[in-house]
Amino acid sequence: MPFNKEAYIRYRIIDECLTNKYSCYPGINDLIDACEKKLGKNFSVSAIQKDIKAMKEDEALGFLAPIKYSRQHNGYYYTKPDYSINSIPLNSDELESLVAFADVLAAFKGSRISENFNNAVEKIHTALREKKIHKGTRQKYIQTDIQRFLHGYENFERLLHAIINKITICFIHYSYKKRFYNSVIAHPVLLKEFQNKWYLVAWSEQHRQLRTFGLDRISDPLYLRSAFHHTSPEIIKNYFSAIYGVYPLPGFKLGKIYFFSTALMSDYIKANPIHISQKEHKTEEDGSMIFELELIPSQELINFFKQFSPEIYVIKPAKLVKNIEESLSTAFSQYRMKYDKPKTI
Questions:
Q1: Is it true that the peptide bond before 317 is cis, omega within 30 degrees of 0?
Q2: For 285-341, what is each residue's pLDDT tens digit?
Q3: What is the pLDDT of residues 39-58, one digit of tens each?
Q4: Last residue of some domain: 87, 122, 145?
Q5: Are the C-beta atoms of residues 152 and 214 closer than 8 Å to each other?
Q6: Are residues 199 and 262 both part of a single domain?
Q7: Integer distance in angstroms from the first to the last C-alpha of the chain?
Q8: Is the model more confident about 119 or about 220?
Q9: d(CA 283, CA 274)
Q10: Most-buried pick from 67, 135, 200, 313 (CB within 10 A)?
Q11: What is the span of the domain harbouring residue 289?
């Protein structure tokens, strides 16, 4: 059951007072002073007494705090010396939610630092235990590049629930290319992030195979009671193991891709490998290099090569080279046409 945010802050303040080893047995006035100092407003004796009663007896809160009043010391204390509301055990639903959120957090962190993820989580847990409640705001030291308020994020939690609980879903999917809405029945298995965009991987009843759907194109997901199609973890793992991005190009198969990179760009490519299959095929005297990949070509891979052109260019396979050439040629023609006949704004 949700409860008032300010009330929860007061519970934390009272807990701090009761666990303070250097100032034992705080009286009611001590608790009032602590709350007023940190929250910047006045509180009555009855308000703090109600908070103590809620901490002790409210099963919805889940604290069931062993708080007693000592007449000898004229103050409150925990009958269990090591007790704190920050160390109460989680129930099964809370634990499931926490595990699911850990998966989301791991996805946001990225593979380059995920090897220290467990240590980081432990440090965060310890820091939360020791954290003090401060008034006002504090300076931010880290700014992430997560784009918020994009269409589709409002369905994230619902889709994640369907994956965890193996629930068949249906939703409306919009194709940017075909400019067409389509109804999809799917059996979701994975939420994947790529370049700050999220995608749902699901076994599609229409295509009879795993498919990728951008969250920005999914609307009105609904749970169905039909039987769930289980996809093995090995199939899910292999689905993205041979692709850079999320959308493989139709007509292409897994194969070797060779591309040239200037000396300056080669340092970047070596420091930030495109894919786990990346190898250094040949190094020239000027520091330029030829790299090798083993992938199924994807639209995202083509976009990568186009983005850093002419610092890098594909040597083979010829089919992929032609695809990139045609794309760049079309872009050049459009710019040339607009330059010759500029549009008025």
A1: yes
A2: 999 999 999 999 998 999 999 999 889 999 999 999 999 999 888 888 887 776 666
A3: 989 999 999 999 999 999 98
A4: 87
A5: yes
A6: no
A7: 55
A8: 220
A9: 18
A10: 200
A11: 255-338
Say which amino acid occupies 222.
Answer: L
Q: What is the dihedral of CA 175, 180, 185, 187, to 10 degrees?
A: 0
Continuous H helices in 135-214: 156-165
196-233 pLDDT, tens digit each? 788 999 999 998 988 999 999 999 999 999 999 999 88
Report the candidate in 28, 30, 36, 29 with the shortest Cα–Cα distance to residue 10: 36
Residue 293, class by beta-carbon neighbours within 10 Å (0-12 exposed, 13-18 middle, 19+ buried)? buried
Query: pLDDT (tens digit, 9 = 90+) per residue, 244-254?
Result: 988 888 888 89
166 shares its domain with 215: yes
Q: What is the DSSP letter of 262?
A: -
Residue 237 counted as domain residue: yes
Rg (CA), the chain: 29
User: How far apart are alpha carbons 163 and 168 in whole angstroms?
Assistant: 9
Q: Are strands 255-261 and 289-295 parallel, antiparallel or unpaired?
A: antiparallel
Same domain, yes or no: 296 and 270: yes
- Number of domains, the chain: 3
Contact between residue 85 and residue 65 where contact means Cβ atoms under 8 Å apart: yes
Please choose, from the candidates 234, 189, 230, 229, the residue with its C-alpha nearest in 3D space to the C-alpha of residue 212: 189
DSSP class of 23: S
Average pLDDT over residues 62-74: 92
- Taking a C-beta distance cutoff of 8 angstroms, is the pair 323, 302 a contact? yes
